[in-house]
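Re: Re: token formats

Sure, here are both.
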Amino acid sequence: MPRLRYLYRPLHLRKNYKEINEEEILCKLYDCRVGTLKLVISKLINEAILSHMNLDINSTITQMLELNNYLTSLFIINLYPLIFNYLLQELEDKQIEEIDEDILRRIEELARSADMETELDLLLVTLEEIVNQLEV
């Protein structure tokens, strides 16, 4: 049985901004439990923009738009690995260290089925059902 800590998918980072820690921004998703992915990601992007903005009046709007587009594209290209890692993180939080191949396959399917309208709490309920079915 594969150990969870070896299953995490790498994130695709661009590192176009020295002052922005892309991985930290993307991984803040792991702390969220409620809301659609669209709502949660928008909130995370807004927080990141506000915390990294240069408050130069002449470039504020331009910076906001540029950072918004940049971070949005990062979340989009990383959607599958983020959701997959999110689900693994949830299992680790439940003290699960190993999963069998069937659970892994079903988690991959669940992660691939997620889109921007996916509710995080429903995603977690589905994960719980997958784990419970295999424990029986």
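Second one below.
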Amino acid sequence: MIEEYHTCGTCEWKFPVPTDPNFQKWELACSKKRKEVNPSGGLTKCPIWKEEI
């Protein structure tokens, strides 16, 4: 069985959020609030992934 994986770093629904008060570290969140988001921008199995234009 082959499963399809995507990267959150190339998804249209991503947006960066700071993880420290000095804005030195960032991670990705998902505007669709899916739990499948990969904060590092790496691989995910998210079913609503959409390629960034």
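The chain has no helices and four strands. The chain has a mean pLDDT of 92.
- S.
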